[in-house]
Amino acid sequence: MIFPYIGAHPTITTDPSERVKYRSIKGTKDILPGDVEAWQHLERTIQEVMQTYQYREIRTPAFESTALFSRSIGELTDIVSKEMYTFIDRSQESLTLRPEGTAAVLRSYIQNSLADTSPLTKLYYIGPMFRQERPQAGRLRQFHQYGAEVIGGQDPILDADIIHLALQVNRALGLHQFSLRVNSVGCERCRPAYRTILTTFLAERTAELSDESKARLELNPLRVLDSKDERDRKATAKAPLMKDHLCAECRTHFEQLQEILRHTGTPFEVDGRLVRGLDYYTKTAFEITSPLLGAQDALAGGGRYDLLIEQLGGKPTPAVGFAAGVERLLIALSKQNSLPGISPGPRLYIVALGDAARQWAFRKALELRNKGYAVEMDFLGRSIKAQMRDANRSQATRVLVVGDNELAQGSFQLKEMASGQETVVSESQIESHLG
Ligand code: AMP
C-alpha cells in the first residue's frame, strides 16, 4: 500500500485480478518510489542539522541480546512486558529486535570505549525500531526513529542542546505546529519518597481509576499520571507531582534548564504529569507534540539518564538524549503540504530505433551518466511512439532521437520537452545542450 501521506505514484498500478501470495506483515509498510523521496529529504535534513550541532552518526545492529533491553528500558514497562520481538536463535540465545535506540548506542559506547576518545560524546542515529503494538494511524510495528544522545556531561545546558536539536530538525523541515513540554522525574534520592506519597494518594482513589491504571498502581504508579483516560485524569487532578518533591540537586537542575530555555527564546510548558514510558530517565523528561497528529500526537520524547551507563556495566557517566518518530514527522509535514515532490526525471531520454541505434544509445547513456548526468533509454524494444510516451512519463527534460539515418549522418534531433523546441546537434554537441 502507498504511504497515506502522499498520493499514489503515477507509475505504480496494481492489477486487482492479480493474486497476491505474500503480503507484508501487519504493522509494517513498504516505502515505495514516490514516497521514498520524502524520506530521503528528511534523512538529509537530519544529517545537515546534526552536522551543524556536531553530533556524529552511529549505526548499531538491528538486534541485540534481550537482556540489554529488559535491563535498561525496565522489566515493568509496556515495551519490555508486552511489545518486544524476542526470539531464541539456533544457538539458544535470546535476542530481541531493537525497540528503541538508546540502549544499543550505550552498549556500543561502552564496548568500544568511546569515552577514551573524547570526554563528551555526541551521537545520533536513524533507523527502524520494532514493537508489537496495536497498529493504528501513526503507530506501526516496524517504525523509524531518529535520535541523539550526548554522553559525559551533567550540565543542564546539554539537556537544552538536545531539546534545541530536536526542535531545529522540525524547523529545518518546515514544520510549523509543535510544542514542547518539560518535566523533572527526579532521581534515585528523591523519587522513592515521592513514590510513597503518590502511592498513598492513589490508594485512596483506586476505585475511580481505569483498569489499566489499577494494574499499574503497584509496579509503576508514576505512569498513572500520564494516562489519557478521563477517569484517571479526574481522579488524579489534585495528585502530588514529582516536580514539587525534587531534592535540591534535581530542583536546581530543573530550574536552570528552564532558565536556559527562556534565555534562548524557546517556548515551553512545564507539565508535571509528563512521565515517559521508559524507566531509565532521571531529572529532565521532555516531549514534543504536534496538533497535526491525531491521538498519537507525540513527535519526539527524551530526557536525562544519568544512571543507565553504570547499570549497563560502564563507568558512572551522565547522559541525555531523545528519539523522534520519522513516520509521525512525515504525517505532520504532509498535513501541512510541506513534503517535497517526487525526484526529477532524467536530464536526457534517448529514444532509439534499431539494433545499431540501441547500442549507440546505451554507450552514450553510460558515457553521460559517468559524467554525472541522469540519462534514461528504452530497454523493452518499444516502438518510437511508446518510447516517446515513456520519456514523457519519466518527466525527462530532453529527448534525443536516434535511428539508422541519424547514425549515418552523425546529426541528431534534440527536443526540449518543456518548450517543444527542437535542435539538430552533432554527437559532440549533446553534452553542452544538457544544461
Ligand atoms: P519512545 O521511544 O516511545 O519515547 O518514542 C519516541 C517517538 O517515537 C514517539 O514520540 C513517536 O514519535 C515515535 N514512536 C514510538 N512508537 C511508535 C510506533 N509504534 N509507531 C510509530 N512511531 C512511534
Overview of the molecule:
There is one protein chain. The protein is of the alpha+beta class. The chain folds into 2 domains: 36-190 and 246-335, Bira Bifunctional Protein, Domain 2 (BirA Bifunctional Protein, domain 2, 2-Layer Sandwich); 348-434, Rossmann fold, CATH 3.40.50. Helix content is 35%, strand content 20%. It has 15 helices and 16 strands. It has helices at 36-52, 66-73, 78-83, 102-111, 156-172, 191-203, 211-219, 222-225, 230-235, 248-263, 308-311, 326-335, 355-370, 384-393, 404-409, and strands spanning 56-57, 63-65, 86-88, 94-97, 121-130, 142-151, 179-184, 269-270, 282-289, 298-304, 319-325, 348-352, 375-377, 398-402, 411-416, 422-426. The strands form 3 sheets. It has an 8-stranded mixed beta sheet with strand order 1-5-6-11-10-9-7-8. Strands 13-12-14-15-16 form a 5-stranded mixed beta sheet, sandwiched between helices. A 3-stranded antiparallel beta sheet has the order 2-4-3. Helix 1 (36-52) runs antiparallel to helix 5 and helix 5 packs parallel to helix 10 (248-263). The protein is elongated and about 95 Å long. The protein binds adenosine monophosphate.
